[in-house]
Write a structure and sequence with these properties.
heterodimer, A: 132 residues, mainly alpha, Arc Repressor Mutant, subunit A, three-stranded antiparallel sheet, 11% strand, elongated, B: 145 residues, alpha+beta, seven-stranded antiparallel sheet, 22% helix, disordered C terminus
């Protein structure tokens, strides 16, 4: 949860998105990354890299005095799964509500199973509410 | 470009499900805390999710009991998916006395600068979905500091 929030925040800054693109498929030293941004100071780029690293969107590796960065696709995959689940959750709620409407009941209890109806055939109340 | 597709079978007729996509009061029963929906081509789509995430776009196509298409994105400063920048298609496909609900989120792009990296596009597409589906944790918008 928290790192999804951190990732959303990290991605809200255009330069951080640009940095992530730069290191998407190539590992680059901080100096090379900074050289892509003529109008931004080196220390500002360092800070952006720090935010991306804390959000686990990039990994950092030391090579002598250099720091090398690369997009963390593993974290991306976890985020993808997480976000896809959110969409699916929406559809599950839609299903609950639509099925309740189909049966003519306005609001089902979402988290509890009604034992008196679970598995038992419900009389299908005809709903002659055709609009045309 | 990678589309995101989600499907679910619902034990209800398309005409029962359809109003949940177009009627604001019914939409709020499954998603959002505020909804402004004008379901006709060019009409407003605006659903506030998680208190601070306004998903905003325009209806593109509305076929009663069959299909709803709307553009979609976030009305937040510097959001990677700006309002109206992606497309969501929801198809209601009758199967017997049930309905297959198929949702396709497409036109997923990184931002106005354009980008050819499929992985990145794909990720941002899923990101789009986060705010649609709910609030990931504390109620802070993506651009909130």
């Amino acid at each position: 949860m928290n790192h999804v929030d951190a990732a959303l925040k990290a991605l809200a800054e255009p330069r951080r998105r640009e940095i992530l693109r730069l290191v998407w498929s190539t590992e680059l030293p901080a100096t090379d990354i900074a050289s892509h941004f003529s109008e931004v100071t080196r220390s500002a780029i360092s800070q952006h890299l720090g935010v991306l690293r804390e959000a686990r969107l990039v990994t950092e590796r030391r090579d002598g005095t250099r720091r090398l960065y690369r997009a963390d696709h593993g974290e991306m995959d976890r985020l993808r799964d997480f976000l896809a689940r959110y969409w699916t959750d929406g559809l599950l709620r839609l299903r609950d509500m639509a099925e309740a409407a189909e049966r003519g009941r306005p609001h089902p209890a979402r988290t509890t199973i009604d034992e008196t109806t679970d598995g038992a055939p419900q009389p299908e109340a005809p709903q002659p509410e055709k609009e045309h | 470009m990678d589309d995101l597709t989600c499907e679910i079978m619902i034990d209800a007729r398309p005409e029962t499900i359809f109003p949940f996509l177009t009627d604001p009061a019914k939409h709020l029963q499954w998603m959002g805390s505020e909804a402004e929906l004008d379901p006709r081509p060019g009409g407003t789509y605006r659903v506030l999710v998680g208190g601070e995430h306004p998903g905003v776009g325009e209806f593109v196509e509305v076929v009663p009991n069959e299909r709803v298409v709307f553009t979609f994105g976030w009305d937040l400063p510097d959001h990677p998916i700006p309002a109206g920048s992606t497309t969501v298609t929801i198809n209601l496909i009758p199967e017997g006395d049930k309905t297959r609900v198929q949702l396709v989120h497409s036109d997923l792009r990184a931002d106005a600068h354009g980008d050819h990296n499929t992985g990145w596009n794909h990720f941002l597409g899923r990101l789009a979905v986060a705010a649609t589906g709910g609030d990931p944790g504390p109620d802070r918008g993506p651009a909130a500091e």
